[in-house]
User: Fold this.
Amino acid sequence: MAEKQEEPSNAQNGEPDNAEEGEGKKKKVKREDLPPFEIVTGERLPAIFFKFQFRNVEYSSGRNKTFLCYVVETQGKEPSRGYLEDEHAAAHAEMAFFNTILPTCQPGARHDVTWYVSSSPCVTCAQRICEALRKNKGLRLTIMVGRLFMWEEPDMQAALRSMKEAGCKLRIMKPQDFEYVWKNFVEQEEGEEAKSFVPWEDIQENFLYYEEKLAEILH
Assistant:
């Protein structure tokens, strides 16, 4: 597995060094105006955020946010997509999806939702996911995660199993999934040709590691 990462700069951690510079379709908010918790939404996230936050390392030093890329497919409609980013304070990106994105979907219709998340949900978010799936019978949720969050903790393992029991499909992101996110959710510099996804050295090794751990937890 990968060695523990060095502490990131603000930019690597998803926090631009200049807080007033917006990235892509990201909300432009002055730092002094930010509430205690902020949910950032957009269609594409900056490449530097993806490269740091989504990297499937064993030790997630400095990765104190959740980045959630989503695809919502509803019969008879074009798929909708975007991303959510949180600050791990009062609420998380998973909560934001259910509070702000899902309510905009057609009531009563079947929705096939896929998340590509930098790390698996915490216990509280797992409970919210279970509630949403039990309440909305038309919701089908697949969660692709880059890393497992605190997977050694018994309550976290129980939360992951409860999500499976509620009908959520949990998967570890393969190298091809990281490439999909790169192509569909990561912004490119204006005026430049789209850059190909370059896998990090231990991407396959770390995928197999987390896949094995998840299988042990769910079975």
In short: The longest strand covers residues 111-119. The mean pLDDT is 79. The longest helix spans residues 203-218.
